[in-house]
Inverse folding.
C-alpha cells in the first residue's frame, strides 16, 4: 500500500514541527530556519535529480511540461491540490493552485509559517535538481495567505 504525499507530509510534521520549534528556541528563528532550509534543500534537490532522471531516461530533449504535470498529479493525489494549468509546453509549465490541503493542515496546526518552511520552500530545491536550465518562479502561496499559488516553470535558453 502506498502512502500519498499529503499523508507523508502529515506524518513527517509530527516529528519536524517539534524539532524545528526546539531548534528555533535554542538557536533563534533565523538561524534555525536557515539550517532547516539547507538540510531539507539538499534532500529535496536530490529528489529533484532522481525525478528528472526517471522522467527523462533516454530522451535527448526532455519535455518540461509533461514532467512537471506528472509531479503535480502525484503531489495533488488524495485531493491534496486543486489547480488550473495555465500553460503546458515542452519548455514551460504554468499552474495556479487554488486549493492546498498542505496549507490547510499547517493552518489547522496553527503553524502556517512552519508549513511554508517545510513544504513550500522545498519546491525551489526540487527544481534545482532538474538542472541549471530549469527555473521556477512563484510570487505567492496559499500557505502565506494568498488566494492561490502561482507556479511558473521555464526552461532557459543556454542553460543560464
Amino acid at each position: 500500500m502506498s502512502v500519498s504525499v499529503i499523508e507523508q507530509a502529515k506524518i513527517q510534521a509530527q516529528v519536524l514541527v517539534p524539532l524545528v520549534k526546539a531548534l528555533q528556541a535554542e538557536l533563534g528563528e533565523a538561524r534555525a530556519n536557515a539550517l532547516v532550509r539547507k538540510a531539507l534543500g539538499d534532500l529535496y534537490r536530490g529528489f529533484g535529480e532522481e525525478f528528472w532522471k526517471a522522467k527523462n531516461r533516454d530522451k535527448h530533449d526532455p519535455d518540461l511540461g509533461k514532467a512537471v504535470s506528472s509531479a503535480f498529479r502525484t503531489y495533488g493525489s488524495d485531493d491534496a491540490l486543486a489547480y488550473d494549468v495555465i500553460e503546458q509546453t515542452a519548455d514551460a509549465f504554468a499552474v495556479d493552485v487554488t486549493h492546498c490541503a498542505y496549507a490547510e493542515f499547517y493552518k489547522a496546526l496553527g503553524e502556517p509559517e512552519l508549513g511554508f518552511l517545510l513544504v513550500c520552500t522545498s519546491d525551489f530545491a526540487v527544481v534545482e535538481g532538474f538542472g541549471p536550465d530549469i527555473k521556477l518562479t512563484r510570487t505567492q502561496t496559499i500557505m502565506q495567505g494568498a488566494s492561490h499559488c502561482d507556479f511558473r516553470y521555464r526552461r532557459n535558453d543556454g542553460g543560464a
